[in-house]
Amino acid sequence: MDNLQKKYIITGAPGTGKTTLINLLKDSVPCMDEVSRKVIIDEQKHGRHGMPWLDINRFTNLVYKITNEELSNNKALVCDRSLLDLEAYLTVAEKEIPNYLKTCPYHEVYHKKVFFAPTWFEIYCKDGQRLQEFDYCLKLEKALLEYYKKRGFDIIMLSKTSPLKRVEFILNLIL
């Protein structure tokens, strides 16, 4: 990951509007799509179990590998989630965090400012790759906030407002 342009992270629990923001931000800045969703779609397509609700360890390994490949080849300024999210997922699942995550040089890869999309019941919905119940999302949100703070990131909470207002807010802080 040498000579890598640092990325701004948009994170939060499932169903908080992160992908909508990334898709809108793409009109202004280069963005990296969420790797987790790509992994889940591919695992479902091939009848494998690398999903957070079936085999969190396989899911973690796949997301880590593909994210590293994409980070190395991607000129994005903003990314949907980060590798640190995997630590929160594993914690909620009560699984051990692998050393490659514990020793990951997060601050070499990501900007210190992290945009956090809070859980938002009114916009949450399940889909083919988002099967979690809303209560799970609340637990994951707590773990995400804990891990980002523990790793020294500055959390910038996004307001529960329109996607366009959220995009304007983010662009004003990163450009």
TrEMBL record:
Domain NadR/Ttd14 AAA: 7-162
Matches recorded under InterPro entries: NadR/Ttd14_AAA_dom (IPR038727), P-loop_NTPase (IPR027417)
Record field: transmembrane: none
Protein name per its UniProtKB record: NadR/Ttd14 AAA domain-containing protein
Protein's organism: Flavivirga eckloniae
